[in-house]
Amino acid sequence: MGSILGIFNIGQQALLAEQTALSVTSQNISNVNTPGYSRQSVVFETAAAGIDGGGVQADQIQRMVNQFIDNQVTAEQSSLGQYTVEQNVLNQIQSVFSDLQGSGINQALSDFFASLQDLANNPTGFTERAAVLAKAQSLAQQFNSTSSQLQQLRKDLNGQIQTDLGTVNTLAQQIADLNHQISQAETLGQSPNALLDQRGQLLNQLSNLVSINTFQDSQGQTTVMVAGQPLVEGSTAHALQGTANPDNGGLVKIQFDTGGGTLTDLSGAITGGQLKGLLDLRDTVVPGYLDQVDKLAANVVNGVNQLQQSGYGLDGSTGLDFFQPLAPTATALSANTGSATVTASVSDPTQLTFDNYQLSFSGGNYTILNLTTGSSTSGAYGGAMAVTFEGLNVTIGAGAASGDVFAISAHQGEAGAMATAITDPNQIAASASAAGVPGDNSNVLQMAGLQNQTMTSLGGTTLQNYYGSMVGAIGSSVQQAQSNLSAQQTVQQQLDAMRQSTSGVSLDQEMTNLIMYQRAYQAAAKLITVADQVYQTLLNMTQ
Description:
Blueprint: H1 2-30, E1 40-46, E2 56-63, H2 67-96, H3 105-121, H4 126-187, H5 193-209, E3 213-216, E4 222-226, E5 229-233, E6 236-237, E7 240-244, E8 252-257, E9 263-265, H6 273-310, E10 329-332, E11 342-346, E12 356-362, E13 365-370, E14 376-380, E15 385-389, E16 392-396, E17 405-409, H7 414-417, H8 442-449, H9 463-503, H10 507-542
Antiparallel strand pairs: 1-2, 3-4, 4-5, 5-6, 7-8, 8-9, 10-17, 11-16, 12-13, 12-17, 13-14, 15-16
């Protein structure tokens, strides 16, 4: 009788085990198209129970993963996120400088110098003079528009950084919550496979936004590090903060609260992900192109104004600016502790380099450093004073403290501020002398000649060649960004394929398993039926 009851028990155990296997198989089939799902498999184990044995039992439901490959997939998401952002934004930058349909700075420069040549051919012609003024205004508007678009792009990138920071913090909290749930499930002896898949997906999304390092503890909880700081610790999520940076036009810098309200700037420590790409584009790439456009505009203004001031208009006017004069800037860094004010002006337009400068104070001395060439001038600082250096006059007020720093530029913002100063076409100084009015065209010929004149402040090239080189560099950057993205997409596809080979669901295999488990279930049911018949026979024999 005992052996028959053992058969019943074995059959029951087999039914339960095969039922579990059928349930797991149905779970695999139903999630064949679920992103991030890891195939599950039942691990069967002999259930020992005395001499007769206990049949079989489903020991565990195993999540089929290659953790090394999964870690690689997560890590490579950072590069994919960075390259995707770079490729998209560089395409936008290229469109800003695209001279399509007769528009853009290059065409405006050509039109302006062509109008000057027309005026040289007829220096008394009012129509030609009006055309020069109109083309100059159009050129200024093109510079204004380009500057405005680049400035707006920086603002848009800043907004995207803030949005991504919010998403990073949301993902961090979700990962921390999953850590808690996974730990609880494992403590209760449950299988948290679905939770592990969810956490893996969230880690991939987080890695796409910012480069991360992860490791797991013995309770199955994942710690997430960002730039050396713990974003997620067990069931606790910290937050990245975007705070305004006064030294970067109020755009946000990424900070981490290390405790007690102490904030650490992580902006320069982030090595990958969308945030890395956005920061580089906002703070390096776009400002670099904006600086070049400002420098180009400043050279046009400086060159034309010098000739305009030295010449004579039809109305006898002289000494006038053609474009609004340059307005050099001197900007104090937010960390300065002194009270000194610093201003800059043009002392000699022929000596201007249009490089960026830094004025610093240390131990009772000042230094003005050309950040491009490394040339400098320095001396003792004893209070209010003025220093002339490379065409600039720097006026320093009293109260500067050691360690104070000021950024100085003769061209910053010039593209956005460019505008014509004269309004009367008769004021255009075509003549080189008062006696030459009205027929002399020698001065306007020099203006027209600026188009092909090599300029030291532009690296020994012409205005349009400088612009062409800049546009060419943008095109090369776009191609490189596309190449980087394509290569990274290939890497990602290969890793995804490797992950699928282990974790992916094969419908053919699952259908085979379904039939196998179904037949095993039927056999177990048949075993119970036979045992029941034997049991009934024995009962009848004892009556």
